[in-house]
Amino acid sequence: MLKSLRRLLSKGPAPLEATALQQWALERGHGYRKVRGAEGCVIDGRQGAQAWRIEWGASQRDYIDGVELRLIAELDLPPELMAMVLNRRLMEVMEKTVYERFVDDVQTRIDTDTPPEMRWLVMYTKVGAQDLGRLRERYGAVCSVAPWLLQWLASPLNDALAATIEMVPEATPVVLTISRGRLTLRTSMPQPDAARLAVWYSVFEHAMREAKRLGTEWRDAAGGGLTTQPSAWSQSVLTRPGGLTTKR
Known about the structure:
- The protein is an alpha+beta fold.
- The chain has one domain.
- The strands form two sheets. Strands 1-2-3-4-9-8-5-7-6 form a nine-stranded antiparallel beta sheet, with helices on both faces. Strands 10-11 form a two-stranded antiparallel ribbon.
- The radius of gyration is 20 Å and the shape is globular.
- Helix 3 packs across helix 5.
- Strand 3 and strand 4 form a beta hairpin.
- Helices cover about 40% and strands about 25% of the residues.
- The chain contains nine helices and eleven strands.
């Protein structure tokens, strides 16, 4: 009896089971596999010809504690295009941290000890609350090319993000980025939750489809060459769902 108890204690905590995520994946015909030597799982799928991947496991960012959900896709977008949408509470925390580090005159830490998402808040143009429409109370955004971001947020992605406002607590960290052609969505998921996965997959799916569409339009407008110059777009003003105004 004592030996059995010792063996049980020596095994440590039981690993998190991702059964709910496995069922979600298999019901939709996606690939599913466990992560070797660690807790977590990977789901592989496609949107038409576009491949994507979902990872659930240990957080890769300091701003998400414990276990995170990551959705990733490699897109044919200009490598100079950098965009980020994140929940406003997290943005405020990041901005405060960046400000305090600059005030303390340790600017090298901004480059070496902070995640790229935090540096982007300093480097790129922030979208004003008036341009975010119904998203402004929950989300903030920055981008290396503001007109592109406004058009992206004015697409059906707007509806998908708006749906999270009532379904996800405002303190839940979530960051949607485009960096060097890679689209990534990160959010906290301490326990495998198929319903919550479905919410974020909807956001990611819309973000992926609309980014690809805009990438094609951008390329066509630039005469077949990828560019991040706003002049690649015409100057007609469009008003999209959610009160967003953008240039195209």
